[in-house]
């Protein structure tokens, strides 16, 4: 801002300066220091799931290919729930799984398979803590609008994150907590002798249930130095616009509870 205009040099020379006597003012008693009130951000929820896309795994060996099939159905533009397609996806993922010590299916096959099948770029990312894994999953879903693959049950099973409920929008602040996660479990409607009954597709899982179902990677077929004792995701790394945009029905649900606010 420009400074306020003052008296001219001539006025300063010719006009006397009159000084008013200082007023005596009584000071109000000093109170406690005022505390800054943090901005209260609205709650946020997102869910990209829609009815009609779910497909269960054809047998106990095909959780990964079924998870991939569910993800492809969500991304669109087509929905294919046939067993024949699940087997073709399984064959592709098996060929691309260069990281499985037992020569079956590994997370690399999941990520590379989705990428080859036109789902956008997916990569395998390893995290030191479960908290970091879940935070990255939520933020990737929010950022890209695409489902996230989660390695569950010590790395033996495949889950898909399709939504979440949070105290604030992860797109505008790092200060939020997640109260529930929407999960698609291709094991549904089966019952596991270890993990219990699988939840219906897109069921909300509280954090305690995520802790129960997501123990660190530990595989019986051998040691994975870069993965043992850690947590894995099959993560989308580019937004839908990088692939020309999703179909209308694949767009993420953006809650009206979340206005467009600058990142806090």
Provide a quick synopsis of the model:
The protein has 264 residues and is α+β, with helices and mostly antiparallel strands. Helix content is 25%, strand content 17%.
Lay out the secondary structure.
Layout: H1 9-14, E1 44-47, H2 63-75, H3 83-96, H4 107-116, E2 122-127, H5 130-144, E3 148-152, E4 157-166, E5 178-184, E6 191-192, E7 196-197, E8 203-205, H6 207-213, E9 231-236
Antiparallel strand pairs: 1-4, 2-9, 3-4, 3-9, 4-5, 5-8, 6-7
Helix pairs in contact: 2-3, 2-4, 3-4
What is the subunit organization of this protein? single chain
- The SSE string, one letter per element, is HEHHHEHEEEEEEHE
Major β-sheet profile? 7 strands, antiparallel
Distance between the termini: 28 Å
What percent of the residues sit in helical stretches (DSSP H or I)? 10-25%
Overall pLDDT metric = 83
Q: What's the count of strands? A: 9
Using the CA coordinates, give the radius of gyration.
28 Å
Structural class: alpha+beta
Low-confidence stretches: 1-28, 241-264
Secondary structure tally, helices: 6
Overall body shape: globular
Query: What is the percentage of strand-forming residues?
Result: 15-25%
